[in-house]
Amino acid sequence: MGTDVAAAQLQVLNLSKHYHGVAVVDNVSLTVAPGEFVALLGPSGAGKTTLFRCVAALTPLDGGTVVVNRRELHTLRGAQLCAARRDIGVIFQQFNLVRRLTALHNVLAGRLGYVPTWRVLLRRFPAADRQLALACLDWVGLLGHAYQRADRLSGGQQQRVAIARVLAQQSRFILADEPVASLDPETAESVLDTLRSIARERGIAVLCSLHQVDLATRFADRILGMRQGRLLLDLPTAQLSAVHRNLLYAAAAPEAQSMQQRSTPMPFGVL
Question: Which PANTHER family does the UniProt record give (predicted)?
Fold first, then answer.
């Protein structure tokens, strides 16, 4: 089911996070390998975004470990933590662009961890960084829009700028938190195809949360499933069945409990 731990770009072991005494993420373990595109499914409130915040070291853990590129993030401090965070690119549902800046300057934000503060304040990035940013925009098909303001781009184009930004960051691992939730179906497919291409062509590990099961089965190599803070599924995409979907969504809790009470064997991929 899961990726071999020694080969994994991301390793999460027994991760837990509580808010007000409630386990929002409950003893979750998973791996993602270089070049692998993994979809994380689950209903709203399953804990997917909190899991992502823990993995990105944006919030402290209550238990467990997160290892990215063989570095245990939550043991690092200061410059070491900043350096480790450069390996993690995050793509958000709402793009998180500076709308009054050009596409190029938004992509250059991916270089913030590499240049002195004065260059950032004056927007005087080295020529090599500007060339890298333009190359990243070209890779996502937006070189011709490099000098357009972000607020004049379509939603799909803005998300592509966000993808170019993590490429400019030279991330080793990408977290995409519901990146197509606000996009129309055709644009959503295009964005997911771009993320899959990044994984396959650049060898970057991608963990992408989605609500659309059909898109996950079309684009992902592997499916993870969360419900009520727990990881319930980890299986190859081709083996996802209607039973697995029910375990995650409407009939999940009663059916799983009933099967356990009857000592019925759980389907392959159920943890």
Answer: AMINO ACID IMPORT ATP-BINDING PROTEIN (PTHR43166), PHOSPHONATES IMPORT ATP-BINDING PROTEIN PHNC (PTHR43166:SF6)
